[in-house]
Structure formats: C-alpha cells, structure tokens
Amino acid sequence: MRRALLLALSCLAASVLSRGAAAVELEGTWYVLIHYTDSATANPEVTRWLDRIWEFERQGDQLVWRDYPIVVFEDQSGRWEGRKRTLTAWEPNAAQWQEIAAGLQVNQRGSTRKVLVGSDEKGWSSRPSGRRSLGVVSYEQHWTIENVRGLPVFTWRDSLGTAAEDAFDGVTRFETEVIEGDGNLLVGRYQRDESKRGTFRMIRAGSATGLRSGGKTPNQKAMERAMQQMLSPSGPVAEDLRERIVEGLAAYHVDPRAVEVEALVGRALELARSGADPTRIGEAIAAEVAAAVRTRLEARSDLIPPPQAHDDSVRYAFPFPPDPPRELIQGVDGRFSHQGPNRFAFDFAMPPGTPVLAAREGTVIEVIDGFDEGGPSPRFRGRSNAVLVVHADGTWAAYAHLARGIPVRVGDRVARGQEIGRSGRSGYVVEPHLHFAVWAFDPREQKAETIPIRFEDGAGGVIPEEGRRYPAASAP
User: Fold this and answer.
1) Residue 100, SS3?
2) Do 116 and 252 fall into the same domain?
3) What's the number of domains the chain is made of?
4) Do 190 and 290 belong together in one domain?
C-alpha cells in the first residue's frame, strides 16, 4: 500500500513527503478513496470501499465544490467481479494510480454541486435553502469545510423534515489527521452516522472528464450494466429509498403500512435512472412524504381542537406507575437528541413491559404499532411504536419507543392515569426507555415544537433533572 501511494505521488511530481507541514490548497481535482466497516449490515466485520472525485473551484469569494460518486477507470481490475461491484476493500494497482494522476472519467449521474461561502481562515459553508415550514417536508444537503489552514474537516449533513421535526438527519464526516506530499495527500478518519466508520485518503489527481457516450470499454459497459442492476426494484438503491421513506413516514407518526411505499420507491428510481442528482431525488421523496402526511392529518381533523394557549396551570402525571421510581436519562436540552424543536422532552429509563399511563386526559389521534426491533443503529430511526394524545387546549403528548400491541385506538378518549401501552425498545434507542414530550403549534412562527411543562409533585410542580429518579404522583 505504501509503495502504491509513493508511486501515485511521484506521478504527481511530489518527491518529498512532509508530514503535517504543508498547507492544503483545495482548488483542483481530488480522488477520494474510503475504506470502512458497517455495523448495520449482516457482516459488520467486512471492510468495504467507496471512491469518488471532488473538484474545488474558487469563484471570487465563493468556493464551488463538486462531488462525483461514479468514477470510471480504463483498468477496472479488482473493482468489479463480472457484472458485480467488488464488496470487500479494493486498493488501486500501479496502473490505476497512474490513471488517477492523469485524470479519470466521471459519470454525471448522481453528481452534486454546492456553492460555499466563507474563507480558508474562517471555514466554508453552503447556504441553507431557508424554505422549511411546518406543512412542507423538504430535503436539504448542507456541506461545510473547517480548519482549511490546518487539518481540514469536510462534513455533509443530509436532512429530511419540516420546521417542526427532522425525519432523518444523516452526517458524513471526513476528518484529516495527516497531510503528506507537499499538501497533495490527506489521510484521516471517515464516519457516516453511527454505523459506518473507517479511513479516507484524498489524493490530488489530474482533471476529470465526463464519460464519453461512444467508444466505451468493456469494463465501462459492464459498469453501466451493474448500475442498471443497482437501480432495479430489488437493488441496493431501492432498498435505501425504502428505508428513507419509511423513516420519514414513521417520524411524522404515519403508519408506513397505510401508504403505497413501493409506488413511491418506483417514482424515485425513475428519477435516478434519468440521471437526477441526489438533491432532486430527495426533494421528490420529501414531496411524496408530505402528501402522505397531509392525507393522514386531514383524516384526523375532526379529532383535533383548534390550537390555543397551553394551560400552564396543568400539572402532568408521570406517565408510569409510582413504584419503583424511574431515572431520567435525558431531559430538557439533552445532548443526545433533545435540541431544537425537541428540546423540552423527557426520557425515563424503564424495562420493557412497564405500563405507560396517560399523563393528561385527551383523545388518541395517532397510533403507530407494529415495530418489533430497536437499537442504537441508524437503521432503526423512525421505527418507533408511539401514541399521540391531543388535549383540550390543542397541545398533544407523544409517548414513544413502546412495545408492540398497543391497546388504544384512534378516537379513543383516555383518562389521566389510564394505561395506553407498555414500554419497549422500538426505534432508535441506546437502552430501553419511554420518550415523553408535549407539543404545541405556534401560529405566529407556523411551526410546532415541544413546550416546557411541570409534573405533579404535590407542591408547585417539578421539572425533572437528568440523573434523578421520579415517582409518579397519584392521579386525582
């Protein structure tokens, strides 16, 4: 491996390696090779690979960053086995390193272009769209580059959501640890969400060219056939689209089994086959999810009273039996997930099967029931069994991570202290717990967010603190 790297650098006229000393000039073309393991797969110990081309271009006080995820070599040795892409880690041979130095071909399909503002001294950041609202689900990609004058850190954040809540929020991070070859080679850590971890190498390359429409090599034709397989209804792209759509629907408390998910996947695949970039595909998914959410909410409109000011005199019952007391493992402004609109939420540790009780009387407006699994893997995001109960003042309580087999149904009136389910471990959880929060709609800001509440303690009410145990007050 070291010998191959030295060959690549010599092809780039970088004859002296100087660790950590050279500054990096981003402008130009870079080849990025990633080796990683994925704990969310059936073979978490297998080292896998990805590669891509990055181009950086300075335009006045802006930096244009282009990402090409489909890279074409004349010599595809080791990258493909017949018509299938090699799963396990691949390392370029000497001839392939020379191709990288001379300049590779790239396929425009799936490419993304972002305009970043800032400076090398202060960092670079793409502008947010600023189009989020409560009623419209949107897809956004936010790219940043930090510490350009030192050890650069490249971050991608992909989110699907509204002003009220993100259905999913994926983060990919390339963190440089070593700079070599007079600033022409960056080596560091790679991480995608919590499951994919490994290393990356970013090597200055020759200028990339678009894939020629004619005169394709046999390997290029094989690659195109493999791409067709990847974009088939049974391929990995379709599976990823299903995961994202299900996550989006469940995060907005829409039962994915009540939606024609396969039809949504099919429409997204058509866009991918036509060469649409990830942003356009993401926006299409967001529009489909938004339509499903609107349809579901319209079906519940007769159960939801007009929004009013929250009755701050209300003291909520703890949503579980009083004995034994339960520890609050994440509270207001919790660092793990209680930020932004979700800041006033409470996570109480409890073993699966503990009765979950209504903290305030109201009407059930949504039930998600049917998920059996959960854990700390991102693949469980949006797969939480939950109950939503709307109150007389238009606020609603969310009870999440419940066990399968919820006894209440949409439209049921529930009394304070009534059992509405059992605690479980469904969805994205580190340990079994009950997630509880009260939400309200702000007509001035046109968004929903959690609100501060107090629990009954026999006095003026209490706001639970992390690390402490709380008994539930008896329901009056």
Assistant:
1) helix
2) no
3) 3
4) no
Could you give phi then psi for residue 409, rounded to 5 degrees? -130, 160
Let me know if residue 250 belongs to a domain.
Answer: yes
Amino acid at 418: Q
Q: At what angle do helices 236-251 and 278-299 cross, to 10 degrees?
A: 40
For 100-128, what is each residue's pLDDT tens digit? Answer: 999 998 888 778 899 999 999 999 999 76
pTM: 0.52
Question: What value does the mean pLDDT take over residues 408-435?
Answer: 93
Phi, psi of 173 (to 5 degrees): -130, 130
Residues 427 and 456 in one domain: yes
What's the DSSP call for residue 23? P
Q: Residue 271 is part of which domain span?
A: 231-299
- Judgement on whether residues 287 and 421 belong to the same structural domain of the protein: no
Q: Is the peptide bond before 152 cis (omega within 30 degrees of 0)?
A: no
Mean pLDDT of 82-100: 82
Question: Of 154 and 298, which is predicted with more confidence?
Answer: 154
Domain CATH for 341: 2.70.70.10
Distance CA 421, CA 281 (A): 37
SS3 179: strand
Element (H, E) at 261: helix 261-273
End of a domain among 177, 203, 226?
226
The span from the CA of 285 to the CA of 158, in Å, is: 13
Q: Are residues 193 and 258 in the same domain?
A: no
Q: Is residue 454 situated within a structural domain?
A: yes
- If asked whether residues 242 and 379 sit together in one domain, one would say no
Q: What mean pLDDT do residues 441-466 have? A: 81
Residues 273 and 375 in one domain: no
Q: Which helix H or strand E contains 158, and what residues bound it?
A: strand 153-161
Q: Are 35 and 48 in contact (CB under 8 A)?
A: yes
Structure tokens, 14: 């970088």
Choose among 439, 468, 194: nearest CA to 349.
Answer: 468
Cβ atoms of 191 and 35 closer than 8 Å? no
Whether 476 maps to a domain, the answer reads: no
Residues 202 and 331 in one domain: no
91 falls within a domain? yes
Alpha carbon separation from 341 to 77, 441, 448, 451 (Å, rounded): 50, 11, 7, 9
Cα distance between residue 100 and residue 30, in whole Å: 9
Report whether pLDDT(164) > 50. Answer: no
Coil, strand or helix: which one is 427? strand
Task: Tell me the DSSP string of 185-230.
Answer: EEEEEEEETTTEEEEEEEEE-PPPEEPPSSS--HHHHHHHHHHHHH
Are 409 and 421 in contact by the 8 Å Cβ rule? The answer is no
The DSSP letter of residue 473 is P
Name beta bridge partners: 64: 57, 115
Which domain-ending residue is among 226, 256, 277?
Answer: 226
